Amino acid sequence: MGQTAANKSQYDVVIAGGGMVGASLALQLCHHSQQQLRILVVESFPIAKSHTAEAPLYNPSFDARSTALSYSSQLILEPLGVWPLLSKYAAAINSIHVSERRRLGSTMMKPGDVDWPALGCVIENAWLGNVLLNALREKDTIDFLAPASVKHISPQQQGVTLMVEQNGSEKTVAAQLAIIADGANSNLREQLGINARVHSYQQTALIANVSFTKAHQGCAYERFTDQGPMALLPLSDSELSQPRAALVWSLPNDQAATLSECDEAEFLKTLQQRFGHRQGEFIRVGDRSGYPLKLVEAEEQVRSGIVVMGNAAHSLHPVAGQGFNLALRDSARLTQLLVAASQQNRALGDLGLLQQYQQQQQFDQQKTIRFSDQLPGLFTRNQFPLSVLRSIGLGFWIFFRR
Ligand SMILES: Cc1cc2nc3c(=O)[nH]c(=O)nc-3n(C[C@H](O)[C@H](O)[C@H](O)COP(=O)(O)OP(=O)(O)OC[C@H]3O[C@@H](n4cnc5c(N)ncnc54)[C@H](O)[C@@H]3O)c2cc1C
């Protein structure tokens, strides 16, 4: 239906936030309920309207980052009908190379090492966002409001009411369930008095696409340095003739600022020194941007009629590329429970049902959060034997096949 002013005021599920998590959850709920659930997605950022699914426009709410998608995320996205388009610009991860700067040792995980056909793939966020939002707009049972904003959520005896603002006017919408997916600095979470534990890593992730002289052959690099981890994720071929990759370089804040602003030659020289020559010579860098790194964990994720999801529930250090993958596993679990509940005419905002979701995801969430949290600090303090590097390589492998 897409971008119409919602004339309905009663929904099964309202999702506050049409980022990667809100959009993919809406598609899952729509598909797995066989379009039985009435869903409203409210996104505060203006989203350019694109005309065809085959040629979606660039969407500025999805930034210049790229996302490493695990194989299990691919399995979640495939039934939604978006995979043929997503895979058009996805680069397969064929191996993971883990190394530590200032030592010769490194470890390489390849498909033959464990019994799994592939590790996953890397997709640029701009493309991922376009494909998800275009798919969402085509669904008759999803209303998509953008730019519009959820200003307030009020729990009711049955479900919730939400105050939605669009074009300067406000309207009240009722739902069985509200999903808060408004990002790490969630206003709605705060408004409801849900505390979040926040730990700053005192580092910034410097993001840029880089090109180099040697073909990457689908190799993802994770390099640990005394200043923080550096990841180089393979990207699909573009009109550029050189191979390219997405760089995620965690650095102390001042160094990230210096490297964001220096000229291209200086940046490439520093990168070459830090990364080495495994990909030949670095020859170009695209737009650079910085993301202050922090771990955010909401102290509550469910209340009667409310679920907090995605970055609003848990925002992770990007070292293991797990934030969105974890959120997809969360949303797959929630979808399964909600669809079953709706088939049994059970209220979707029922606290017992939502607690069941949280209990079922708790182990996965805690394991993923702790792996992402502890990894970056390990190599700033110690030099480990090669067996530790190998275990870390295996850790990446395990997370990418979950
Ligand atoms: C450098 C970096 C690299 C990463 N790499 C990976 C990776 O390789 N693999 C991986 O799995 N994860 C990765 N992640 C994590 C991933 O990016 C996040 O998990 C994901 O973006 C979370 O999406 P979200 O929708 O929860 O939040 P957001 O992307 O923050 O979206 C929230 C949305 O809500 C909207 N909004 C806010 N307030 C309101 C309101 N009141 N009403 C309506 N809308 C509102 C905002 O406009 C926004 O669009 C990375 C993260 C970083 C920082």
The number of domains:
2
Predict the CATH topology of the largest domain: FAD/NAD(P)-binding domain
Helix content: 25-40%
- What does the average pLDDT come to? 88
* Fraction of residues in β-strands: 25-35%
CATH class label of the largest domain: Alpha Beta
Find the count of extended strands (DSSP E, 2+ residues).
20
Bound molecules: flavin-adenine dinucleotide
Q: What Rg, in angstroms, do the CA atoms define?
A: 21 Å
Could you please describe the fold and organization of this structure?
- The chain is of the alpha+beta class and 402 residues long.
- The chain has 2 domains: 10-53 and 125-197 and 296-376, FAD/NAD(P)-binding domain (3-Layer(bba) Sandwich), CATH 3.50.50.60; 87-124 and 199-293, D-Amino Acid Oxidase, Chain A, domain 2, CATH 3.30.9.
- The chain is built from 10 helices and 20 strands.
- The strands form 3 sheets. Strands 5, 6, 12, 13, 14, 15, 16, 17 and 20 form a 9-stranded mixed β-sheet that branches. Strands 1, 2, 8, 9, 10, 11, 18 and 19 form an 8-stranded mixed β-sheet that branches.
- A hairpin with a 5-residue loop joins strand 5 (95-100) and strand 6 (106-109).
- Helix 1 (20-32) packs parallel to helix 4, helix 1 packs parallel to helix 8 (323-343) and helix 8 runs antiparallel to helix 9.
- Mean pLDDT is 88; it is low at 1-6 and 58-62.
- It binds flavin-adenine dinucleotide (FAD).
